[in-house]
Each structure stands twice: as structure tokens, then as C-alpha cells.
Amino acid sequence: MYLKEVQMENFKSVKGQVNVRLNSGFTGITGPNGSGKSNITDAILFVIGPKSSKAIRAGNLLDLIWNGGEHGKPADKCRVTLVFDNTDRTMPIGYDEVHLTRVIKRSKENKQGYSSYFYINGNKSTLKEFEELLSYAGISSSGYNIVQQGDVTGIVKMGAVERRRILENIA
Amino acid sequence: MYLKEVQMENFKSVKGQVNVRLNSGFTGITGPNGSGKSNITDAILFVIGPKSSKAIRAGNLLDLIWNGGEHGKPADKCRVTLVFDNTDRTMPIGYDEVHLTRVIKRSKENKQGYSSYFYINGNKSTLKEFEELLSYAGISSSGYNIVQQGDVTGIVKMGAVERRRILENIA
Amino acid sequence: KRDGFFRVFSAVNENFRRVYSEVSGGGDGYLELENPDSPFEGGMHIIARPRGKKVTRIEALSGGEKGLVALSFIFAIQEYDPSAFYIFDEADQNLDSLNAEIMARRIKISSSRAQFLMVSLRKAALKYADDLIGVTSLGDGVTRIIQQLDIDSIVEPDEPEGSVE
Amino acid sequence: KRDGFFRVFSAVNENFRRVYSEVSGGGDGYLELENPDSPFEGGMHIIARPRGKKVTRIEALSGGEKGLVALSFIFAIQEYDPSAFYIFDEADQNLDSLNAEIMARRIKISSSRAQFLMVSLRKAALKYADDLIGVTSLGDGVTRIIQQLDIDSIVEPDEPEGSVE
Ligand SMILES: Nc1ncnc2c1ncn2[C@@H]1O[C@H](COP(=O)(O)OP(=O)(O)OP(=O)(O)O)[C@@H](O)[C@H]1O
Ligand SMILES: Nc1ncnc2c1ncn2[C@@H]1O[C@H](COP(=O)(O)OP(=O)(O)OP(=O)(O)O)[C@@H](O)[C@H]1O
Ligand SMILES: [Mg+2]
Ligand SMILES: [Mg+2]
Questions:
Q1: How far apart are the CA of B30 and the nearest CA of chain D, in angstroms?
Q2: What is the pLDDT of residue B169?
Q3: Which of B88, C19, D132, D154 is least enclosed, having the fewest CB within 10 Å?
Q4: What residues have CB less than 8 Å from B71, skipping those under 6 apart?
């Protein structure tokens, strides 16, 4: 099981459709300040269900939609699909690939201003189903498998009780 | 006016006497992690009077004395002298050099476990006199002339009121 | 609940001791509970002694030394609670070139068991990756991906890039 | 007291606007009071718009973009309240090589008016210094000083230092 591709459409600093293909081993990601490296990590977290929008550096989920840049028009929705290689059937689904898709669409009807949709291989789903599937692969947004920018110094700065809680969450 | 030399004796990771000569322009300081670069900044702050021992990363001022390393014996005192070039008489003292010296000595008599001494060109003095002299050169431990490791990210993370207070302190 | 916690604590502590000793070239590190009898009433400290030094509170360590301690703790947890993939986003920012290499080498070894993505600005770390992805924007704030970046195309300061002096 | 504050605020704001535009190649930055009528009842925000992007809260900027904003704010204060010497301790840790160079170049220019000490692990920044001081310890935790360090003796990752691959 590994993450084969991250497909982003109008997500944060991504305008239109941009895909990142990944290998199963060790991939390095580099580039200038502000170019969008951490936004790729945010896109992955967005799908696997962050505990809060703060974890993906957004005031609210509408901040995740491409804002148009200096002079352009903002997009009306953003979509991220994570493509997992499931040939080893780590996830109990009978396909070689599992596509987990999450969409945020601006909407005037809801008071929060947007609606949020989840899909597994194109079929409507829920965050809860995502979390269940991902747990088979040991992937969770609260675990230490994703170390965001600045997290490393956080471990040393946090208080002793908060640090103990990290191990409690794993138990 | 500029800082000509930092003379350290048994201060933090400095064992015995070690002096750093500086030029009046732009000096770069580099070296491996944990080698003692920030300790030199702490030595300078120690003399110009940090608002708290936390600013020089010490639980209390006894932590500033060379601790002996893995197998050695801790020293009984530490001393730091800052040598300023005063040929332009920025500091109202009739010498070409001003030596500001601060000493911490372990002592069983005091309940805090140490005594602290201040000297100007070898004559006993006080922290208050240090601060007065240094203010002629625009040097203060609370100003932004010393940007310690990690301070840069602090500016962005601090709250709006704390940020306003920075400008209030300057006024 | 208590038993579960102790199982995790002693396993992660064991991992941490081994990993920290490896990455620091022989330092000692361990986890310490404030209240070992009833752990949920106290916190947990990380104690680390870099090679050749006395034991210190981690607050008194240098920026890079703290980074290495924190990374060792993260690796210790990852070993206990394995996952299909891992992401490190500029975890080498406090590290000097040597320690950035040590971190990347460690990731390289672990990448035989799981997928690792590492964001870094340092060649010292990037050179250990199997593949390199470039992320850039042409001054218009739009993210573009360069799928197969060549490590030699990353210009570091010592190469004269139309030197500004 | 209010008048004194406003004098500082408008001078630092002016400096910040200019410095940020310089270091970011044309971005816009300014300081904003929450309560301009009675400043001591509210806080102060830093607003920055990197070149080619929409204005954003500084929390939404990238690590390096935040670093550049914070540095510009520090330079803006230093210009208002001059001092005989300045110290920067690894202020370039979030910056890519290009921005680390921009920061060091800015320090180089200012060093004609005042003394600057810069601690850095990056050659991109160190190469602008007039003199270089090496700090090292031989695995025994004792700090030693190398007074006249030669920039070429700093081995960065691309030079084969007994390459580990
Ligand atoms: N909804 C959005 N629309 C357009 N741009 C956005 C949106 N959300 C965030 N951004 C932009 O994305 C940029 C941040 O990108 P990111 O944090 O990924 O950079 P980075 O490559 O990680 O840089 P660094 O090396 O400095 O950490 C910011 O400039 C921010 O303004
Ligand atoms: N009283 C003391 N006696 C001996 N060593 C001490 C004392 N106080 C601090 N130290 C040691 O000094 C070291 C920290 O040095 P310093 O913070 O200056 O490193 P640095 O060169 O800035 O490294 P980095 O690049 O990681 O920031 C620590 O390892 C700490 O244990
Ligand atoms: Mg980033
Ligand atoms: Mg340091």
C-alpha cells in the first residue's frame, strides 16, 4: 500500500488541475519559499480528515479554494483525490486502486457558505468511512506519520502533560 | 563605537578562558549544532543585562557556570568581559576602550547560591550603571538589536496586543 | 487503560533510547514520567545527554540538539505505530549539514518498509531521496510541479549563479 | 504617551513598507492597528501581500514568507531606533537560498553604519560577511573558536566529504 498520486484542483495555490505522481520509496520535495510545498501536505491532510481547519492553515474551509491570485477570479470549488495503490489489499476493497476524493463547493444555501462532499472510487461516502479505510493502513491525521512544518520544535516546547498525552493517544 | 572582543571564562560551554575578536563591520559565525554559537550571544546578553535568566536559556544563573562536561569538575565562577571601542567617545568615559565585566561566583552564604559582580574597566559597578552607559550606544537587552534563535518566528506567532507593545516600548 | 499506557511507554522509550544514540553518535536519551505510579496525574519529560556532555534539561540544549531529540522521539513513535506512508515538512530546519544528512539517511533506511515524503530546502538531505519533485511558481502565486527534478539543477550558494558581489 | 506611540507607529510602518517591498521583490506590506482611535485598547496586525498574490493574513503565508515579513519588521524597528551593534542568530532558518542571500545582502549594506554579527549554517548567507568565525567542539562539549575561518573550508553537501552513499 502506498500513495501513488495526489490530484489537486483549485486547492489553495493550485489553479486548475495539477497532479503529483509519487513512488513507493523515498521522495524529496523542494522549491522556493511560498511556491506550494506545504500546500501539497495540506491537500493530503484535507482528505484524511484533519481534526481542525487550523491544521491545514485555513481560517475556514472556504480559504482552501483557489482565490484567483492578484487579479483573477476565485474558483467556486476545490477538489483533492488521493490515489492509493491497493494491490496488496491492505484496504478491504476489491480494487487495485483506491481513490479518496474530497470536494468543497461554495454554496449560498448553507450558513457556513460551503458544502463538503466525500467519494470513494467515485461513489458518495463520508469522512467516517474514509477514516475507517485509512486506519487499515495505519494512516490517521492525529498520528505522527505527518510531521508538519514547525512540528519538530513543537515537541520540545510543549508542556510535560501534553507530551504524555501523545503516548496516551497511541495506546 | 563597536564591540571589539568578547572574553569568556568558564561561561556555559566555554572551559577556561576563550576570547572572540570582532571587526566593526559584518562578522559571520558558524559551526556545528551544539558547538556554542548561541552561547556567545548569551554571554553578550549576560553582560548587557537580560530581563530574565530565561532569556539566556538558564534555569538560574548558576547554570551559566561551566558544568565540567561529562567527567570533569564544575568551575566555581564564570566571568564575561565585553570590550567596546570607545575612540569616538559614544560612552561618556575618557578611555579608548570600555571593559564591561560581569562575574557569577558560587557562594554558600547566599540563599540563591551565588553572588553577582559588575565591573567597569576593573572598578566595581552595578547593572544600573551598565544600562546607563549602554543606552548611549543604543544597546539594550529588550530592544530588537539582538534577535535570538527562534525570535523571528516568534514575531508572527505572537498576539496582536503583544506586537503593539513592541512599538510602545520603543516610544 | 493504565496497562495499555505502560506498554506504549516502555516500547517507545526503548525505541527512543536506541534511535537517539544512533543519530547523536553515542548520546544517552530516555523518557521520564513525573509520576510513575499514576502516570495520568503527571506529565512526561524527555531527558537527553549529547555525547561528551552532562545530562541537561532539553530546554538548555542548542536549537539543533533539540531538533535531533524531537526527531528521535518522532521516529520512536513511528516505529511503535507503523503507517503506510510518512511526511516530513522541513524537519531539518535547525540542523547543520551533517545532522541533516543523518536525518535523511535514517529516512532512506526506513523507506524500504514504508513510503516517505520529505520536504526540504537542503541538498544535504535531498541527495538521499530516490526521486525529486520540484515545486515552483513563476511570480504569479500559481503552483507548478516539476515531476522529475535533477538534483544538480538545484543551485546552492557556492555555485556562481551570476554572483551578486 | 499617545502622541509618542503614533510617532513610532507611523515611522516604523513607513520603514516596514519600504523594506518589505525591497526584500520581497515588489510585495506590499503595512501595519494595521485594531483600534486606530485608541491604540492601547487593541492590538496591531502585520498585513503582507507577496508579489503576484492576493493580500492574506500572515498566518496563511508559508514558513519562508512569514520569515521574510518578520525580518522586515525587525529591520524597520532597527532603522527607527539605531544601535551600535546587532546580532542575528540563525534568522535564516526558514528561508530558501535566495531569500537567505537577500537577508545577508541587506545586512551587508547596513553594516556600513553599524556592527552586525550573524550566526548562520548557510553558505548563502555567510558568503556576504567581511570576516568569518568558526565555533566548534571536539565531541567533549568544550567550545573552541577558530578566529579567521575560510569560507571554502565550510563543506556543504555537494562537496564529496567522503560521500556516504
Ligand atoms: N486559497 C488560496 N488561493 C491562493 N493562494 C493560496 C491559497 N491558500 C494559500 N495560498 C498561498 O499559498 C502560499 C503558501 O504556500 P506553501 O505554504 O505551500 O509554501 P511552501 O512552498 O511550503 O514555502 P516555504 O518553503 O516557505 O515553507 C502562500 O503564499 C499563500 O498565500
Ligand atoms: N553551564 C554549562 N556547562 C557546560 N555546557 C553547557 C552549559 N550551559 C549550556 N551548555 C551546553 O551548551 C550547548 C549549547 O550550545 P549553543 O546553544 O550555543 O549551540 P549552537 O552552536 O548555537 O548550536 P545550534 O546550531 O544547534 O543552535 C548545549 O549542548 C549545552 O548543554
Ligand atoms: Mg512550507
Ligand atoms: Mg544556536
A1: 5
A2: 85
A3: B88
A4: none
Q: Which distant-in-sequence residues (6+ apart) come within 8 Å of A115 by Cβ?
A: A104, A105, A107, A109
pLDDT band, residue A54 (cuts 50/70/90): confident
Residues of chain D neighbouring A68 (CB-CB closer than 8 A): 54
Among D87, D130, D149, the residue to mutate for chain B (most B Cβ within 10 A): D87
Closest CA to C75 of C156, C4, C21: C21
Q: Do B35 and D7 touch (CB under 8 A)?
A: no
Q: What is the mean pLDDT of residues A103-132?
A: 95
In chain B, the DSSP E strands lie at: 2-9, 17-21, 26-30, 77-85, 97-106, 114-120, 123-125, 146-147
Distance between CA atoms of D31 and A12, rounded to whole angstroms?
A: 25
- pLDDT of the residue at D165: 26
* Whole-number Å distance between alpha carbons of D22 and D27: 8
The pLDDT of residue B171 is 76
| pLDDT at D157 (0 to 100) | 52
Residue C163 has pLDDT above 80, yes or no: no
Poorest-pLDDT segment among A117-121, A144-148, C23-27, D89-93: A144-148
Q: How far apart are CA B108 and CA A59, in angstroms?
A: 55
pLDDT given for residue A145 in this prediction: 87
- Closest Cα of chain C to A38: distance in Å? 7
Residue C45 touches partner B, C-beta closer than 8 Å? no
Are C134 and C150 in contact by the 8 Å Cβ rule? The answer is: no
CB atoms within 10 A of CB B124: 10
Instruction: Compute how many other C-beta atoms are within 10 angstroms of the C-beta atom of residue C40.
Output: 13
Q: Does D156 score more than 80 pLDDT?
A: no
User: Which residues, 6 or more positions from C20, have their beta carbon under 8 angstroms from its beta carbon?
Assistant: C27, C28, C29, C48, C68, C69, C72
Question: Is the CB of residue B18 less than 8 Å from the CB of residue B8?
Answer: yes
- pLDDT confidence bin for C156, thresholds 50/70/90: low
Amino acid identity for residue B149 in this structure: Q
DSSP 8-class letter at A126: -
Paired strand residues for B77: B105
Beta-carbon separation of C157 and D127 below 8 A: yes
- C-alpha A31/C-alpha D35 separation (Å) is 39
Whether residue B9 is predicted with pLDDT greater than 50 in this model: the reply is: yes
